[in-house]
Design brief:
- It is built from two helices and seven strands; from the N terminus they run ββαββαβββ.
- It is mainly β.
- The radius of gyration is 13 Å and the shape is globular.
- The structure holds FE2/S2 (inorganic) cluster.
- FE2/S2 (inorganic) cluster binds next to loops.
- The site of FE2/S2 (inorganic) cluster has 13 residues, from loops.
Length: 141
Amino acid sequence: MGGTNPYIEKPAAELPRKPYKVTFHRPDGPAIVFEVDPAKLPYGPTGLPGSILDIALNGGAAGLDLEHACGGVCACSTCHVKVVKGLESCNEPTDDELDQLEEAPDLSLNSRLGCQCVPNGSTDIEIEIPAWNKNLVKEGH
Ligand code: FES
């Protein structure tokens, strides 16, 4: 499933204009660094174009399959990630995203929904996949 959710406020997101790096810190494995190519966005149909979920799931080279029970339309909280570096380069969360995030365990100030968080590429960013999610993160395709 992919696409957008017609029942929520449309998030405003600025797409990157130059390549930037995303580092995924996994709870049980080495970090994975992936360079985002703005010319290839969106990588796939799931999550907002250029979102962390789009990059992790569809970017391919990252080899990450981040959980996304609702198909990336801001209707669950399984794509919860923490932006540990570069949060200032990401779009502001909507009220709908914040409502969904409240359902996520292990919430912190830098928590975002991977499907709604779109970095603008002005800086490299680092993402932490919460440990509670470790059984849901698969490596390879
Ligand atoms: Fe459901 Fe992101 S995949 S809210």
